[in-house]
Design goal:
By secondary structure, this protein is mainly α. The protein has a single domain (10-99), classed as Arc Repressor Mutant, subunit A. Helices cover 60% and strands 8% of the residues. The protein has five helices and three strands, in the order E-E-E-H-H-H-H-H. The protein has helices at 27-37, 41-47, 53-65, 67-89, 92-99; strands at 10-12, 18-20, 25-26. The protein has a three-stranded antiparallel beta sheet with strand order 1-2-3. 18% of the residues are buried.
Length: 104
């Protein structure tokens, strides 16, 4: 008999986004704290004192159990940021401000 995975502090929204129950923080945000800053669960709690260690450990467990899926979400978010940055950096207003010497 196979048991379904459960994460006591994680729920999934109707849109399929895993969040910390009661906190409305996406699991991907906790994963990014761990990945980008190399924070441990204790450090994540120091940075987000409204979260319990149980919530943070559940989020990290969910991330590691669904790492490929969440890494794809992170990659897509990074692509979206790069696309927005490219549009902003090449805007007519930005070009005009550069020409006026107001931006470098």
């Amino acid at each position: 008999m196979m048991l379904a995975e459960t994460y006591p502090h994680v729920s999934v929204t109707p849109e399929g986004i895993p969040i910390l129950s009661g906190a409305k923080i996406k699991v991907v945000e906790i994963a990014l704290d761990h990945l980008a800053h190399h924070w441990t669960a204790d450090e994540i709690q120091r940075q987000h004192p409204h979260l319990s260690l149980g919530q943070i450990h559940s989020a990290l467990a969910y991330y590691f159990d669904h790492q490929n899926e969440i890494d794809r979400v992170i990659d897509e978010q990074l692509r979206q940021v790069a696309a927005i940055r490219a549009r902003v950096e090449s805007s007519a207003v930005r070009d005009k401000l550069k020409a006026l010497g107001l931006l470098s």
